[in-house]
Design a protein that fits this description.
Layout: H1 2-11, E1 16-20, H2 24-35, E2 39-43, E3 64-65, H3 69-74, H4 84-89, H5 92-101, E4 106-109, E5 113-116, H6 121-134, E6 138-140, E7 144-150, E8 153-159, E9 164-166, E10 169-172, H7 187-194, E11 199-205, E12 209-211, H8 215-218, E13 223-233, E14 239-249, E15 253-255, H9 257-263, E16 274-279, H10 286-299, H11 315-325, H12 338-349, E17 351-358, E18 366-371, E19 376-377, E20 382-383, E21 389-391, H13 405-423
Parallel strand pairs: 1-2, 1-10, 2-6, 10-21
Antiparallel strand pairs: 3-5, 4-5, 7-8, 8-9, 11-18, 12-15, 12-17, 13-14, 13-16, 14-15, 16-17, 19-20
């Protein structure tokens, strides 16, 4: 490969840009660099590109969020100011136009989340791969072992077997450590650290939560829609997060869109530090809910409590709910006291679960942490420490909430890095 690369460089005056990682950021960086006139080689260790991208959004691929810049940055808890230039350069509107120009029609759903009309993440991956190949990007399915550096400049990559592919610039887009089976096993952290970059310790973000007690296992598989989830500090009661939407009980605790978003707000996850509060009926205040209960009690006055709540709760939730209320499930509805009914109202409005920790980083949608952005130039994504080296995507210490924000970050930083690498901007 050494001799081949040298001969190819003699045949062309175009800058050779190597992109390491064929995910969302990597393909976008490769596309942009090629559009800017560079000769691009994309190295992807898997047998196909976009492996992680194919499973995002439950296989539907939430490509971006149709919001303005300020709203977007408000959804980035980690280093939002660093992303200002990249998002200004390649906005959410640009992302929509990009994919529709590639023949992938898009639609906007609740929360301004943008998906392909087909609901197929594979269509997004295929469009990007076709675009890469149409622009002459050479896609090589080989593993990169390291970055070649001479005189403080990145000048190529070291492949398995020790071969070196020379380049004028190298863009690292290797992802974080979430979903390692898709190839995101932390190689990029190792490369960056070996070149002197500080790595903010990777932690899971947008990850299910482990909870104490028997409630969650007893409700395993139950999905709740149109509920409010509020997270508070257990000791002080200080609210940390609150939103309305959908969540799911599992054998270990809680997951689903609300829970994943909440996890991004939890930093010091000492067991028991936070408590989850679930409002099953957020549209009803306590007075209205009490009237609703009285109506149901009148309707089912001769039934046992266990058989009188089907109009109010999912079947799987009834027995655990009654247990939380401390009521005998075989007690007749007409015998339920006012105090017991008021207790039921309070429980409907506030089921509490103690949070014990995160699920493993392997189950996280994205990774918090990564290359310290203080060592990266925000207008070019160029390393401040190593000339010719660029970063894009999840490898950087930036992360956002659910809703298409993280993929947009990958696309925007990929565009900036690809352009800068192609033109030799630092």
């Amino acid at each position: 490969m050494k001799s081949m690369t040298k001969s190819m460089n003699l045949e062309s005056d175009a800058r050779h840009v190597i992109v390491v990682g064929g995910g969302a950021a990597g393909m976008m960086a490769a596309i942009t660099a090629a559009e800017c006139g560079a000769r691009v080689t994309l190295y992807e260790r898997n047998d196909r590109v976009g492996k992680k991208l194919r499973i995002t959004g439950k296989g539907r691929c939430n490509v971006t969020n149709d919001c303005d810049l300020n709203t977007f940055l408000a959804n980035v808890p980690t280093n939002p100011r660093f992303l200002y230039a990249a998002l200004s350069r390649f906005s959410t509107e640009d992302t929509k136009n990009f994919f529709e120009s590639l023949g992938v029609p898009l639609k906007t759903e609740r929360g301004r989340r943008v998906f392909p009309v087909s609901d197929r993440a594979a269509d997004i991956v295929s469009a990007m791969e076709r675009n890469c190949r149409a622009l002459g990007v050479a896609i090589e399915h080989r593993r990169v072992q390291g970055i070649q550096v001479e005189d403080g400049r990145a000048c190529g990559v070291i492949l398995s077997g020790g071969e070196v592919d020379a380049a004028d610039a190298v863009i690292l887009c290797t992802g974080g450590r979430s979903y390692p089976l898709t190839g995101s096993d932390g190689d990029g952290y190792r490369f960056a650290k070996s070149l002197g970059h500080e790595i903010v310790p990777p932690q899971p973000s947008l990850v299910p939560l482990v909870c104490a007690g028997k409630l969650c296992p007893s409700l395993q598989g139950l999905s709740l829609k149109n509920v409010t989830l509020r997270i508070t500090e257990t000791e002080t009661g200080k609210p940390v997060y609150e939103d309305f939407g959908e969540m799911l009980f599992t054998h270990f605790g809680l997951t689903g869109p609300l829970v994943l978003s909440a996890s991004a707000h939890l930093r010091d996850l000492t067991p028991g530090k936070y408590t989850a509060h679930i409002d099953l009926k957020p549209a009803l205040d306590e007075k209205t809910l009490d009237a609703r209960l009285l109506s149901d009690f009148q309707k089912y006055q001769n039934r046992d409590v266990i058989n009188a709540l089907d109009d109010l709760l999912p079947q799987k939730l009834i027995a655990p709910f009654i247990s939380l209320c401390g009521i005998d499930p075989r007690k007749k509805i007409h015998s339920v006291t006012r105090e017991e009914r008021e207790g039921m109202v309070r429980t409907l409005k506030d089921i509490t679960v103690s949070i014990q920790g995160f699920r493993p980083i392997d189950e996280a949608i994205v990774t918090r942490g990564g290359v310290n952005v203080k060592e990266v130039r925000p207008k070019t994504m160029a390393s401040k420490l190593v000339s010719g080296l660029y970063f894009a995507g999840e490898l950087l210490d930036v992360d956002a909430y659910t809703g298409g924000f993280n993929l947009q970050i990958a696309f925007s930083t990929g565009v900036v890095a690809g352009s800068a690498a192609a033109y030799g901007e630092e």
